[in-house]
C-alpha cells in the first residue's frame, strides 16, 4: 500500500509541476517545436530544471544501500539500441510534434476531462495493450 501511495504522490506532484509550468497546453509545446516561427523556449527551461532536480536527487538516492520501498535497485538488463526502440521513438516524436501532447501532460489533461486528451489517452492505452511486454528481438525464456 505504501508503494502505491508513494507512486500516487509522485504522479500528483509531476502533474502539478506540468500544470504550473503550462506544459499541458498543446499550443505551448508546438510553439517550442516551431523553431522557424514564434519559438517559445520555456519548455527547454522546464526540461533543464527537471534535469537539474533529477541529477541532484539521483546522486543522493544511489548512495542509499537500498530503495525506500524495494529490496534492491533495478537497472535495465539491456543497453542495445534496436530497431523497435528507434521506430517507437520516431512515432512518439512525430505524434508529440503533431499533437503537441505526450503521455504526462495528456494524462493531466484527461484528468481535467479535456475531450482531446481523453481521446489521446484512450489511444495511448490501446497502444500499451497492443505492444508486447517483451521486445521481439529479445531471447525467449521458453527455450
What does this structure look like?
The chain contains six helices and no strands. The chain starts with a helix and ends in a 13-residue tail after the last helix. The protein has one domain. 63% of the residues lie in helices and 0% in strands. Helix 1 packs across helix 5, helix 2 packs across helix 4 and helix 5 crosses helix 6. It has 143 residues and is mainly α.
Outline of the structure:
This protein has 143 residues and is an all-alpha fold.
List keywords for this structure.
143 residues; 6 helices; mainly alpha
Please describe the topology of this protein.
Elements (H helix, E strand, L loop, with lengths): L1 H20 L4 H8 L8 H20 L21 H17 L3 H9 L3 H16 L13
The count of helical stretches stands at 6
Mean pLDDT: 83
- Please bin the fraction of helical residues: 55-70%
Q: Any idea what the shape is?
A: globular
First CA to last CA: what distance? 36 Å
Q: Calculate Rg over CA atoms.
A: 18 Å
Tell me the β content: under 5%
- Ranges where pLDDT stays below 50 over 5 or more residues in a row are 139-143
* Structure class: mainly alpha
How many distinct beta strands?
0
Taking the sheet with the most strands, its summary is:
none
Number of domains: 1
Order of helices and strands: HHHHHH
